[in-house]
Amino acid sequence: MEKFEYYIESNHVDERIDKFITEQFSDYSRSFVQNLITNGNVKVNEKISIKKNYKLSLGDEIEIEIPEPEILDVKPENIPIEIIYEDDDILVINKEKGMVVHPAPGNYTGTLVNALMYHSERLSSINGVIRPGIVHRIDKNTSGLLVVAKNDFAHNFLSEELKTHDIERIYYAVVHGKITSSGTVNKPIARNPKNRLKMAIVSGGREAITHYEPIKNYGNDDTLLKIRLETGRTHQIRVHLQSIGYPILGDPMYGVKKEKIKHDGQLLHAKELILTHPSTLEEMHFESELPGYFKDIIGKLERIYDRDGI
Fold first, then answer.
1. Overall fold of domain 70-164
2. Average pLDDT score, the chain
3. Do residues 214 and 222 lie in contact, with contact meaning Cβ atoms separated by under 8 Å?
């Protein structure tokens, strides 16, 4: 059983505890979190008997215990997914925002893996029954491209490509603040020692390198960025951008509490994917359009920008 601790700061005061925990564990459903509370797996200031609508106070100490996941027989589900490319070795998927990549406590159904199992009888077995075919993942509320392996040979090949940084992953994000020049963040990442639900810049953590380039400024308030990952740590882009003072719009974990434009989930899209095909050794370049929700936010920012004459 995993245990996590969190100390409530001012930006979470008066927030419902079930909402707060769900935001921290992006792979868990709200109903799963509510069951944790009901079953006594959540303590506030060492007390178990709390309600799911408990309002947080400054300095509250939250303790969360996550039970060991069940041994699952993951079921195929007829869930629509956007397949950009498919052959005998790989699938390239354009994942929609809000879809969890693989089953986890509280999300045993409705994931990309469930959909993949319905679509294809052949997926690599290297990651077992929970994550068949999954070479790399993107967060629940991040949209965009990821590659899936249909056999173990392809999986091993692509994993090695990731390890040697030969797969290129390019993201677009809108961040708070004005960035006028390109740059690189090279800071190690590990679990936040004060809050195990989050990642953080930690001395002695794993190497993490993120390159960024501004595409457009919206006044002095926001910037559309093109981002290239050199490494692929958990929450890397979100943590790195926060660490230099430019958190992503809508990010519930690393962003700002009050925003001019309301958005549910970080405004981050995996737009381009460049890889070497496992069998043909051909370089392949995939690209997806920015999704509708992303374009809507950009449109709102442009209207504010034009209105203010900045």
1. Pseudouridine synthase (3.30.2350)
2. 88
3. no
